[in-house]
Amino acid sequence: MKFPGFAYNFYERKLQRSLDPERIPHHIGVMVDGNRRWAKLAGAPTRDGHQAGADKIHEFLGWCEELGVEVVTLYMLSTDNMSRSPEEIEQLLDIIANTLDRLGEGNRVRVQPVGALELLPDNLSDKLCSLATQTKEIDGLHVNVAVGYGGRREIVDAVKELLLASAAEGQSVEDVATGLTDQQISSFLYTRGQPDPDLVIRTSGEQRLSGFLMWQSAYSEFYFCEALWPDFRRVDFLRALRDYGRRQRRFGG
After folding, report:
1. Is 33 a catalytic residue?
2. What's the domain of life for this entry (predicted)?
């Protein structure tokens, strides 16, 4: 549904007024999907679609800050996506690097890398680590940048780290297995210490997780939007928040 000028602005304001401030998600995961299709439909190079998607990220984070969201996890590059053509991956990594530089401007957001940094080129992994250090004391929106991320790999990495830490403490495998809890595994995830996502949004009309926050999203609410990510509007975001606010969360019940 599209609205011209004044009607669109009126509808957007009405949507925002309908939101209950007490029902705004604390943590939102976003699958920024549809950049390639956007470029194809526009008759533009794939790089233009990825750049349009990167520009939308900054706009989206502004909306989150305005509405009081505390944590955002951006699914920017999966381990599966890294098998695309070398030319596209090189362009995408360059755009991600530029996006990180922009995130570091203004000291507004706290950035944390989420993923297997050893899979990334050294310059990008170094940039992620440097930005995390630079912004760690910022008391603002917390932005998890999921680059080189895979949900199964995260769980495997968490279990490996747990076993190595337990072995360093002199525990046997049998002792670890006997006392193992889901809270222990959570404490070794990439997002350790953070609240699980309340809401996961995926654009482009696809209705699957694609490995995104598989452990953390066990009790998340999901919202699937037909808009391709570069076309995702503030009104689409407000609709997602309105839908979330109307749901009765049962946490598995």
Report:
1. yes
2. Bacteria
